[in-house]
Every structure is written in C-alpha cells, then in structure tokens.
C-alpha cells in the first residue's frame, strides 16, 4: 500500500505539471519496447527494474538485477541502488565535507567516514514524478530543495529513458537556478549478462570487458576514496582493461587483487574509478560481453570517467528475479555475481581542485548540467553478432 501511494503521488504530481500520463500496470511498472529490446521502469528512484534482450540462442534474457515485487524497492534495508538515479552528487565525498565559495559544508557520513551518493536522503530514496510516457520512452522529474542533502540551493532534474532498435538511451538534465552547488549524476546499472542462467558459473568473473580509453585510474585508500593520485595503467596490471579485452577475473591471482577495492583490505575485485582519454560521446568506451550467453553491451557516453563495482559486498542472501536463473539451482545472487557500471565524472572531484574538474561538477546559478549515455546490445563475434 505504501508503494501504491507513492505511485499515486507521482502520477498526480505529473498531472499538476499540465501533462496527464497513463498509469503503470498492475505490478507498478511502465513497459517500453523497441525491436530487440524491452524494458520496465518504476517511479521510485527513476528505476529500471527489468531489461530484456535476446541471447545467441534467441532466448530472451533479463540482464539487470532487481526484484520481482516492485513494492520492495523502497523498503529494502540494504538499498543497493539497483539501476536507479542517485544524486545530487554521486559516489563519495571525502570525510563528508567540501568547501564551496569559502563556505564549508558537511554531508551525512553514510559510508564509513565518507558520504556515498549524497547521503541517506539522496535521489535514489525518492519517488520521481512521471511527466511523459510513450510506447518507447518515459520521462521523470525531481525537485530537490536546498539543503535536503546539506548542499546549497535547489536543483531541478529530469531523466528520459528511451528505446530504439537494440538500444537503451538515457539523458539526464539538471539545473541549480539560484546558487552554485555540486551536481554529478549517473545511471547506476547492475548487469548480469547471463541472467544467472549459466548452470556452471554465476559469478561475474567470466564476463569480458574492454575499455580502450581507460588508461588512467584513481588510486584509493582503505575506504575506496580517491587519494588524489591518478596513475597510468601498465599493460597487464590489475586495472588494465584498455590494452585488450579481458575477463573481469583475469587478475584474481595477482598480488593486490585481494583488498584492491577498499574495505580496509576486505574488498577484492573492483570498486574503481577510471578516467577516459577521450571526450565526446561517439566512441564505445565500454564493451561488456559474455561468452556463455553471447550477449554484448556497448556503452557510449559524454562522461569522462567511469566506476565499475563487482558486487563484492553481496552477502549471498538476496534472491534474483523469477525472470532469471535456471531450474534445479537456488535463487540467490552469489558474491561477485554482478557488475555495476556507472558513467560519471571523477569521484570526489569537488575536493581535488588540482584535477581541474570543478567546472564539470559545480553548477549554477542557472547553468545546465547535461549527462547522456546509451547502451547498444547485440551478440559477440563468436556468437554470430553484429
């Protein structure tokens, strides 16, 4: 009932903006379709709940994490930010502190000593307004009042998801009308290209990734916060996905893989921010693929960095959806069973003016923030793809 009330509020809010939108289906979802792709969304956190594409055998696979019951997203105590829009400033703020125009601000420390995704009242905890729906697109809006996350000035934002042939497009726009404030956003998508249906391996380590422009990486401390050092990545190093396509688990036996992603040594794998040696949004910056399913996903973005997180903190107690898995096996997501891919700017750039990112992360009054990305889905060459 709580979730249905949220849906009603979102629909009414859209109507007050002068646009009547259709209601969601009985499960609380809006479904979009285009040739080769189908996606479902809910207003809570402007969340993608399901993303269906076909594998090499023509079987439709739901390749993102989420829940069968849409009403669970707002009440899940773990709040993994499944395929949602956090904000107004994503990832970490060091020690929950930043200084802007000679004023020091303190944000909620909800990730050890640091702030994650702007704290526990960030946009991924809120119901967005549905302002427009067609058969292949949906637009959400949010109003973020001043100081809602201990950041100055109000922010207004929209996100539009649209589908075209084999493609998912995402556009986010935001504005701080009155004062300068931090804005850095992302679509926080968790992928599993096998949809947990590979009977022999449900980890993410057998997925392959290639990031040809990601030749630099932000070094982090024990809490996964950038130290300020941006290093060039040598061929074959733990973070090298630029020199050639590599399995995500290729470096598992290298010294340093355990503890590589923070957690004061307890996190293995990746919770890492790479910088792209490129600008613009024409080139493919990330290709994620699976040999088992044959599915390939190509990311294009106007962002100049990316975060990959390989689900180290999953406790193995969360079930995947009924649209996923294989008969005869349990329904639990294993540790290291997924990957979050987040196109964005440099993590904690507001606290590192030496990086020269302030004009990419501080906006207002009236300056427009614009974020766009697209995922194109097909088959790997080995599977007879495009």
Helices, strands, pairings?
Layout: H1 2-16, E1 30-34, E2 37-42, E3 47-54, E4 60-62, E5 92-93, E6 97-100, E7 103-106, E8 115-116, E9 129-133, E10 137-144, E11 155-164, E12 167-175, E13 181-182, E14 189-191, E15 207-210, E16 216-220, E17 226-232, E18 246-247, E19 271-275, E20 286-290, E21 295-301, E22 305-309, E23 339-344, H2 358-361, E24 362-363, E25 368-379
Antiparallel strand pairs: 1-2, 2-3, 3-4, 5-8, 6-7, 9-10, 10-11, 11-12, 12-25, 13-24, 14-23, 15-18, 15-20, 16-17, 16-19, 19-22, 20-21, 21-25, 22-23
Strand content: 25-35%
Helix content: under 10%
Please count the helical segments: 2
CATH hierarchy class name? Mainly Beta
How many domain units? Answer: 1
Any idea what the shape is?
Answer: globular
Overall CATH architecture = Distorted Sandwich
Q: Give the spatial strand order of the biggest sheet.
A: 9-10-11-12-25-21-20-15-18
**For the CA atoms, what is the radius of gyration?**
20 Å
Kindly report the CATH topology.
Beta-galactosidase, Chain A, domain 5
Q: What is the residue-mean pLDDT, rounded to a whole number?
A: 94
Low-confidence stretches: 1-16
Main sheet record: 9 strands, antiparallel
């Amino acid at each position: 009932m709580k979730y249905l009330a949220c849906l009603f509020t979102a629909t009414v809010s859209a109507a007050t903006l002068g646009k009547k939108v259709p209601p969601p289906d009985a499960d609380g979802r809006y479904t979009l379709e285009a040739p080769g792709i189908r996606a479902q969304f809910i207003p809570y956190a402007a969340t993608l709940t399901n993303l269906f594409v076909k594998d090499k055998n023509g079987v439709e696979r739901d390749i993102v994490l989420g829940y069968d019951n849409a009403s669970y997203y707002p009440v899940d105590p773990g709040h993994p930010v499944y395929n949602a829009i956090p904000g107004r400033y994503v990832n970490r703020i060091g020690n929950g502190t930043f200084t802007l125009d000679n004023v020091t601000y303190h944000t909620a420390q909800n990730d050890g000593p640091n702030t994650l995704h702007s704290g526990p009242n960030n946009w991924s905890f809120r119901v967005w307004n549905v302002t427009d729906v067609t058969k292949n697109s949906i637009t959400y809006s949010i109003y973020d009042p001043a100081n809602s996350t201990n950041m100055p000035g109000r922010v207004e934002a929209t996100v539009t998801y649209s589908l075209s042939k084999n493609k998912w497009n995402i556009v986010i726009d935001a504005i701080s009308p009155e004062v300068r404030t931090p804005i850095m956003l992302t679509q926080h998508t968790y992928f599993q290209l096998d949809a947990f249906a590979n009977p022999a391996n449900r980890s993410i380590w057998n997925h392959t990734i290639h990031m040809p422009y990601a030749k630099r990486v932000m070094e982090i401390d024990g809490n996964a916060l950038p130290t300020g050092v941006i290093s060039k990545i040598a061929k074959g190093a733990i973070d090298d996905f630029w020199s050639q396509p590599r399995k995500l688990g290729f470096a598992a036996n290298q010294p340093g893989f355990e503890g590589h992603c923070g957690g004061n040594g307890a996190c293995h794998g990746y919770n890492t921010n790479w910088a792209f040696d490129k600008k613009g949004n024409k080139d493919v910056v990330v290709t994620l693929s699976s040999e088992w399913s044959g599915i390939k996903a190509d990311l294009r973005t106007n962002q100049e960095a990316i975060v990959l997180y390989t689900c180290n903190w999953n406790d193995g107690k969360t079930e995947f959806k009924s649209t996923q898995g294989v008969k005869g096996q349990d329904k639990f997501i294993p540790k290291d069973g997924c990957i979050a891919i987040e196109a964005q700017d440099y993590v904690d750039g507001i606290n590192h003016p030496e990086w020269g990112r302030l004009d990419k992360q501080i906006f207002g009054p009236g300056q427009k923030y614009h974020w766009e990305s697209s995922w194109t889905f097909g088959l790997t060459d080995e599977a007879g793809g495009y």
